[in-house]
Amino acid sequence: MKTIVKSTLAFALALGTAYGAFAADFTKGTVKKVDAKAKKVTLMHEDLKELEMPGMTMVFRVKDEALLSKLKEGAQIEFVAERVDGKLTVTAVK
What we know:
By secondary structure, the protein is α+β, with helices and mostly antiparallel strands. The chain contains 2 helices and 5 strands, in the order αβββαββ. The chain has one domain (27-93): CATH 2.40.50.320.
């Protein structure tokens, strides 16, 4: 019986961890500047809760060049920011 409980708990934890990897919080922001050549964007954003960062204006790397086409100066967006190789990076936009 203990083995079944341990296996079930381990599975639930693994499932929760895997699900958490895909359940990112989107943050509202305004695009201030796009530097397509450098693959960077300047955003004025609300609090980044997952990164424990207050709202401010700052420069982010853009992980995927395809995201740059969604970023136009003045646009209101929702985005996901993560630390990738130690750099703050936009990894999703809607």
